[in-house]
Design a protein that fits this description.
The protein has helices at 17-27, 48-58, 100-118, 132-137, 145-153, 187-203, 229-242, 254-262, 274-282, 320-334; strands at residues 5-9, 29-30, 33-34, 41-45, 63-67, 79-83, 124-127, 159-164, 167-171, 210-214, 247-252, 268-271, 289-294, 299-302. By secondary structure, it is α/β, with parallel strands linked by helices. The longest helix is centred in the first third of the chain and has 19 residues, at 100-118. The model is unreliable at 29-37 (pLDDT under 50).
Length: 338
């Protein structure tokens, strides 16, 4: 089987993104995530001068070569091919600061990577973290990069999946105001996320995935005393999933569902909103966590953390989460045609 071609976008240049890419590509194996040039054909989408500068900081033995088109890529480490998107201009990187030019740079790199994805030239994308404030200051009026990519690729309902060690998570609602969550907790939406979780778990090797569905309300609503979403929407979605022979349990109170998952009772957890999943995820070791955007033309992996401006340009960033994102992107990209 041919190795998948993976485009790594440099993220916000003022953050730790370029450093993470340099460390992952120079190590081959990072923090226990065994993914290297043996598993995929990586190239960077970004500015070669930014990558060379951070390479000096880190002391990595990589050589970055500018290419104008993917057809020019050699994929011959320690040489790293860097595709420079049209319109990308970076003169001085303001390490550790929010800057609209850096937000625009991150967006242009993502755009180029997904143009190649739509044209089936790459089989996966790994995005170093971007800064949402810089992204918005650059004029991109999207709630997050996933909404931006959804519009770019005409993808109707992409979702964010998270990995925390052996446990997978997905949230029925994402980056929205808290007051808007309840109106989106509907049977059909919950069921779609259960199905997406089942499909993803099967792709990564779980023959019979065990899925938990978190409740929305305290104590799972206490029979309607604290809210009826569990009775009217979440419970019926779980029953509909069981009718499709899915091993799913719930609604389980949110304050115990991840404790049970970490005790190996479940392989995946469907949460109702962003922080239900992410508070649990971010309490786990970062080098075992990654974020995956699914429902786009190709899978897109990214870190379970942000741009870490306080560490930018110092050579001290931990590449484990980006390495995990690369590992799972390669795994899912390799099976995309199966």
């Amino acid at each position: 089987m041919d190795k998948p071609t993976i485009a790594l976008t440099m993220g916000d240049p003022a953050g730790i993104g370029p450093e993470l890419i340099v460390k992952v590509l120079s190590r081959g194996t990072a923090c226990g995530c065994r993914t290297s040039d043996r598993d995929c054909r990586p190239l960077v989408v970004g500015d070669p001068s930014v990558m060379r500068d951070i390479c000096k900081v880190v002391g990595a033995n990589l050589r970055f070569s500018l290419i104008q088109d993917l057809s020019e890529a050699n994929f011959s480490p320690p040489d790293v091919d860097v595709l420079h998107p049209e319109g990308l201009r970076i003169e001085n990187v303001p390490w550790g600061r929010v800057d609209p030019d850096m937000g625009r740079a991150a967006a242009l790199c993502l755009r180029k990577a997904f143009e190649m994805a739509v044209d089936q030239k790459v089989q996966g994308v790994v995005s170093a973290p971007l800064n949402k404030e810089a992204f918005h200051l650059a004029g991109y009026r999207y709630r997050d990069e996933l909404a931006y990519l959804a519009e770019l690729t005409n993808s109707p309902e992409p979702v964010i999946l998270g990995v925390m060690g052996s446990i997978w998570t997905v949230a029925v609602t994402g980056h929205i105001p808290f007051k808007d969550i309840v109106g989106l907790i509907k049977k059909e939406r919950v069921l779609r996320h259960i199905l997406r979780m089942r499909d993803t778990l099967k792709k990564v090797g779980f023959a019979e995935p065990r899925i938990a569905v978190a409740a929305l309300n305290v104590h799972a609503g206490e029979g309607g005393l604290f809210g009826r979403e569990e009775i009217d929407e979440i419970g019926p979605a779980i029953q509909a999933a069981r009718e499709q022979d899915i091993n799913v349990q719930g609604p389980i109170p949110a304050d115990v569902v991840f404790a049970r998952a970490l005790e190996k009772s479940f392989d995946g957890v469907v949460s109702m909103y962003h922080d239900q999943a992410n508070i649990a995820r971010k309490l786990q070791p970062r080098h075992k966590s990654a974020t995956l955007f699914m429902g786009l033309p190709v899978v897109c992996g990214t870190t379970a953390h942000g741009t870490a401006f306080d560490k930018a340009g110092q050579g001290i960033a931990d590449p484990g989460s980006l390495a995990a994102a690369l590992k799972y992107t390669v795994m899912l990209s390799s099976q995309a045609g199966e």
